[in-house]
Amino acid sequence: MANTKSGIKDNVFVGLDIGTTRIRAVVARKNPEEGIDILGVGNSVSTGIRKGVVVNIDATVKAITHAVREAERMSGVQIKSACVGIAGGHIKSFNSRGVIAVKQGEVSKSDITRARESAAAVNIPMGYEVLHVLPQQFILDGQSEIKDPVGMSGVRLEVEVHIVTGAVSSAANITKSCARAGIMVEDIFLEQLAASEAVLSDDEREIGVCLIDGGGGTTDMAVFNRGAVHHTAVLQIGGNNFTRDLMVGLSTSENEAENIKLKHGCVWMDNVSAEEVVDVMSVGGRPPRKVGRPIMTQILQSRADEVFTMLLSELKKRELVEVISSGIVLTGGMANLEGIEELAMSIMRIPVRVGRPVCVGGLSDIVSDPIYATAVGLAILHAKKGHSSNVLSKGTEEKVFGNVLSRMKRWLEEFF
């Protein structure tokens, strides 16, 4: 960590989750244990994104700026750069294999690079670019399941990889929006891969696990086995679909439907009783009504059934059901719906748990909600890159952290 006249640099990292319904910024710094401590967060309503894709740059810039400024005020950090997430129906992925001859009879890092380049030398649709080339395993002279062959002797090196591609225009619009908000994009990561950094354990990755990240516009999937990514997919159904179902089914406004979903949303009929009722605002000047909570639950459960049936179909099509031995981890806003674990288990027939960011210090309680999984994961990935242009405010780190706690206390007093 280097000290400069402007402050303490190179140790502060930012994850920026540009979602369909919310934009979240998480500020973190490395700690002596090589983990991260959360310094602050920022939130704003997202109005320029549809299903993970920028459709209005001005609105997106405004929302990014608001979230970043809020994170700066809480953390005492001047944010200049961030790692950013990308999602949307344009994301396409597939597995590939590359083969090379080992030059010196001993595998070097340059051989690894050549093998990956060989695997990535595939036809990509026009207008798309490769976002990630993720090694699954190396095979050296027929010996498989090698994770790092550097230094091993052999003559023929093969690598199996998972390749993720995305639309050039989508990535460009995300970068442009951030630049106009004064943020340099250090890197762009697939959102479900970022979320996995925050909520999955190494054991789950090794045994086999399916991460499902339910956002506002899309539901994203990533399957891990033997420590590597084996499959990723995006369903263009998300929390907004649940909200619109309530809006139509209850004849209410979209804002009211969203509030009902957040406060009373349940997707498992066994969790509600016939006596439970909720006040629902009407439209067109009509008076409010009392609606039975079982009616709302039935509406939401029907949509949740559809989502998990589609996810199960995707796993079966790829023959991955037997691969995810440790089960499914749910994260994102969808994971906060009451009864979501019971419903998912009833359809998937495997263990399910809700994934919350773990192994972080500092203001960890603020980001313990599944909605922060992607932003926290992006901050972790930013930290792993090892460099940053973000700057802590003047003063010792201890004073800065004390200021953060004081700001949090005042913030909580305002709301409670």
How does this model look, in words?
Strand 4 (22-30) and strand 5 (36-45) form a beta hairpin. The chain is globular and about 80 Å long. Among the domains are: 2-88 and 170-194 and 358-415, ATPase, nucleotide binding domain (Nucleotidyltransferase, domain 5); 92-168, Dna Ligase, domain 1, CATH 3.30.1490. Helix 6 (239-250) runs antiparallel to helix 8 (293-317). The chain is built from eleven helices and 23 strands. It has helices at residues 57-75, 109-120, 168-180, 191-199, 202-207, 239-250, 254-264, 293-317, 340-348, 373-385, 397-415, and strands at 2-4, 7-9, 12-18, 22-30, 36-45, 49-50, 53-54, 77-78, 81-86, 92-101, 128-140, 143-146, 156-167, 184-190, 209-214, 219-225, 228-235, 277-280, 289-292, 328-331, 352-354, 360-362, 391-392. The protein has 416 residues and is α+β, with helices and mostly antiparallel strands. It has a six-stranded mixed beta sheet with strand order 14-9-3-4-5-22. A five-stranded mixed beta sheet has the order 17-16-15-20-21, with helices on both faces. It has a four-stranded antiparallel beta sheet with strand order 10-13-11-12.
